[in-house]
Write a structure and sequence with these properties.
InterPro entries: tRNA_Mod/Golgi_Maint (IPR051521). Involved in the maintenance of the Golgi structure. May play a role in hematopoiesis. It is found in: Cell membrane; Cytoplasm; Golgi apparatus, cis-Golgi network membrane. It is a multi-pass membrane protein. It comes from Semnornis frantzii. About 80% of the residues lie in helices and about 0% in strands. It is built from 8 helices and no strands. By secondary structure, the chain is mainly alpha-helical. The termini are far apart. α3 crosses α4, α4 packs antiparallel against α7 and α5 packs antiparallel against α6. It has 2 domains: about 100 residues; about 180 residues, no CATH class.
């Protein structure tokens, strides 16, 4: 029995030791699993932090790209505007690309009527010379108002002179071009502007001379000779480009009448009209302050002598 009990005890001991080893293994496995879970948790937290950091970087990068795109669009729009403005200026360049020698030759030609009207005469398609003549006429009108007895208020009335000269040049050119279209005349709007603009050269000469030398007889001589020559030049060019006697009479008669009457208006009526406009807008020309003379009473010489002696004795 003693041996049997010993065996039984050994078996019990072996079973107990086996169960304890199994418990140790389970504990070790559980500790490993907990460590792995902790490592996985730390890894997940790190990944979340990295994701948040990358999200902030992505947001900043997106904002930077949007700002860069906006700056690019603004620069692109400004560049397109600059190119379009340059293109518009480039369209007008052929009308002002002219040499001074050519302008001088065309000024002299504007005073010489052409004789050949059987074929269309050549018209310069440039606007530099006519534009300079219009500004010259404006300056001459201002000079005439300063040298005359016209009372100038509120500046030199440059706006009135510019409106008159440019209004005549553009308005009459458009009206004659419309008549030329109705009469089947071979002329363009630019050619009409150039023809009428160079026709103002005679007006500039006449007004410049007669504003400085005030003789009506001298004005009429220049009006008929210088203004008449420039008008005949324009009439001859239009006659060469118009077919039909009636059409020529209507077109050329209208242009000659308007051109010669405009010179008369500038010499005689322009200053009076401007004065009337100023009086209407501002009222009559009254001085801002008037001094009224006082009546000084007459004092006898005896009173003056007595006063002087009294002052001398006092001193």
């Amino acid at each position: 029995q003693g041996g049997g009990s010993a065996v039984i005890d050994m078996e019990n001991m072996d079973d107990t030791s086996g169960s304890s080893f199994e418990d140790m293994g389970e504990m070790h496995q559980r500790m490993k699993e907990e460590e792995e879970e902790e490592v996985e948790g730390d890894t997940g937290a790190a990944e979340d932090e990295d994701g948040e950091f990358l999200g902030m970087k992505g947001l900043r990068g997106q904002l930077g790209r949007q700002v860069a795109d906006q700056m690019w669009q603004v620069g692109k729009r400004q560049a397109s505007r600059a190119f379009s403005l340059y293109a518009n200026i480039d369209i007008l360049r052929p009308y002002f690309d002219v040499e001074p020698i050519q302008v001088r030759a065309r000024l002299l030609e504007s005073m010489i009527p052409v004789k050949m009207i059987n074929f269309p005469q050549k018209i310069a398609g440039e606007l530099y010379g006519p534009l300079m003549l219009v500004f010259t006429l404006v300056a001459i009108l201002l000079h005439g108002m300063k040298t005359s007895d016209t009372i100038i208020r509120e500046g030199t009335l440059m706006g009135t002179a510019i409106g008159t000269c440019f209004g005549y040049w553009l308005g009459v050119s458009s009206f004659i071009y419309f008549l030329a279209y109705l009469c089947n005349a071979q002329i363009t709007m630019v050619q009409m502007l150039s023809l009428l603009g160079y026709g103002l050269f005679g007006h500039c000469i006449t007004l410049f001379v007669t504003y400085n030398i005030h003789f009506h007889s001298l004005f009429y001589i220049f009006w008929l000779s210088v203004g008449g020559l420039s008008t005949l030049r324009m009439v001859a060019v239009l006659v060469s480009r118009t077919v039909g006697h009636t059409q020529r009479l209507i077109l050329c008669g209208t242009l000659a009448a308007l051109h010669m009457l405009f010179l008369l208006y500038l010499h005689f009526a322009y200053h009076k009209v401007v004065e009337g406009i100023l009086d209407t807008l501002e009222g009559p020309n009254m001085p801002p302050f008037q001094r009224v003379a006082r009546d000084i009473p007459v004092v006898s010489s005896a009173v003056l002598n007595t006063t002087a002696k009294a002052i001398a004795l006092t001193l």
